[in-house]
Description:
Blueprint: H1 9-30, H2 37-50, E1 54-58, H3 61-71, E2 79-82, H4 89-96, E3 100-103, H5 118-121, E4 126-130, H6 141-151, E5 154-158, E6 178-182, E7 196-200, H7 203-213, E8 217-219, E9 222-223, H8 234-265, E10 272-273, E11 288-291, H9 295-304, H10 334-342, E12 343-346, H11 354-369
Parallel strand pairs: 2-3, 2-4, 4-5, 5-6
Antiparallel strand pairs: 1-7, 6-7, 8-9, 10-11, 11-12
Helix pairs in contact: 1-8, 2-8, 3-4, 3-7, 8-11
The protein binds pyridoxal-5'-phosphate (PLP).
Amino acid sequence: MIRQPFVDLAAQYAEVREELTPEVADVLVTGIFIGGERVRRFESEFARFCGTAHCVGVASGTDALRIALLAVGVGAGDEVLTAPNSFIATAEAISQCGARPVFVDVRADTLLLDVERLEAARTPRTRAVVPVHLYGQMAEMEAISAWCARHGLALVEDAAQAHGARLGVRGPGSFGAAAAFSFYPAKNLGAAGDAGAIVTDRADVAHRARLLRDHGQAERYVHEIAGFNSRLDALQAAILSVKLRHLAHWTERRRALAALYRERFEKAPGLQLVAEPREPDAHVYHLLVVRLARRDELREALAAGGIETGIHYPVPIHLQGAYHHLGYGQGSFPVAEEAAREVLSLPLYPQLSDDALHRVADTVEAFCRR
Ligand SMILES: *Cc1c(COP(=O)(O)O)cnc(C)c1O
């Protein structure tokens, strides 16, 4: 039996090994591990890639969200609207600011924040909105940013899964105050450990984020505010600079594989692909997600064939013990809850071969026909 992993970071390393290894060795030789030229260089490269004026590297995607929210002024007593079907970090970043996550159900077709439901969740305490570009597809940013502007709310995008996504010419970070990226190893652009970044067009937000990530100092031992230790390592910056050069063609490969899956599943009974993108560039396919009522059975059938899958995410955040105190329950967000029972993520990464994809699709199709 051929084992099919969900992701294959060793295959990715093999592709960039000759460029990457000397860069890592060079950091070790220079001995500059915190800050320095490599961090600044990656920040300017990633800002250019995103089409934003600034990029501030931090220690993780979770910290990128938290620092972005603090930098736009979110704090104790505030409410922040977000989606319940995300990785828990989206809500954690909000509660770590002392604010309260207020969930808003998602659209059934895209599983992205439903702009029509925002108004019902708004109160005088609402301070910001955090749309999640789940699975790599951008939420309806034109409508969401217009709504935020109308009500004077800050907009911070969770772009942890959406490196390089575009609506027209605009990517994450150019619609609202800031966007937060994660470079967790398995993300579309991944470090060799934890890393993240905030991108923004606002100089004031970038300045505040720079202070917050480094103990509140712009100058050594001059602490304007109380901050954190959340810097992007020079080693990670060096690795990210190399991989960034490959991101455009990796994204094209992800899109080609997604198109192949779509073609294969056109006639698979009971199976639905989550979200045809509204625009081709709006989706970077961090994950390839299908939906079906018999999800758990399909997952077992694939596992029996040596094929690894994922569930993003099995329990919506409002039903997690960590957020029990918010007072939500079963039935609070029916769209997100039904999705949690039905979604299944299939192997998809740039180094996946067409043959390997067809083997996965064969097993899925055979299951759907029986
Ligand atoms: C990965 C992820 C995060 C958190 O990023 P880390 O780098 O793991 O801290 C936040 N939100 C979403 C949607 C993610 O997928």
